[in-house]
Amino acid sequence: NAGVTQTPKFQVLKTGQSMTLQCAQDMNHNSMYWYRQDPGMGLRLIYYSASEGTTDKGEVPNGYNVSRLNKREFSLRLESAAPSQTSVYFCASSQRTGGTEAFFGQGTRLTVV
Amino acid sequence: GEDVEQSLFLSVREGDSSVINCTYTDSSSTYLYWYKQEPGAGLQLLTYIFSNMDMKQDQRLTVLLNKKDKHLSLRIADTQTGDSAIYFCAETLGANNLFFGTGTRLTVIP
Fold first, then answer.
1. Which of A31, A37, A51, B21 is deepest in the core (most CB within 10 A)?
2. How near does any CA of chain B get to the CA of A104, in Å?
3. Cβ of A33 and B41 within 8 Å?
4. Closest C-alpha among B42, B37, B31 to residue B83
5. pLDDT tens sequence across B18-62
């Protein structure tokens, strides 16, 4: 059982480049999330999708877009990467939003130079 | 979120108890959680407590909740080197999201 799978695991971008982080879950969960993790700041929610076909902004959505492609997949796009977006990105899923266990992917370490 | 506060570091000797503390923001939070992150990995749920409980025990883990002070703690008995990790408390706000604390890096000294 793979759980939550993120690709790639590592990425280096130049300022201004674009890229998409991919996330897929095989647990038939309704809700999916993207977080970024920065030292001393914990995890901050970028975007979430409560169910297939819906997406909503989290705490720090600026500079990002998301697509809930189907129930399994939730991608995060950086249209024009900036050094401030250097971070570790985590995708997570849960059966529903609020009050249930969230399962996390292994993370993507992104460096923008 | 920045309003869920934790100390950044904790060191304990192997065999001692560890107590990790957290203050959270919203007295209406329904669930409060403890997640563990090992190096190079994502977060895994350790335990959670429903807001109408004061205490929950699960093997070596004890969670205490003080709703009046909005204070949550995680006690790990007989701490082992394998417990070295970052521990995050988290709360649910409304029906939507998990908000995480800054994380406490626990180092267990052999």
1. A31
2. 5
3. no
4. B37
5. 999 999 887 777 788 999 999 888 899 999 998 888 999 999 999
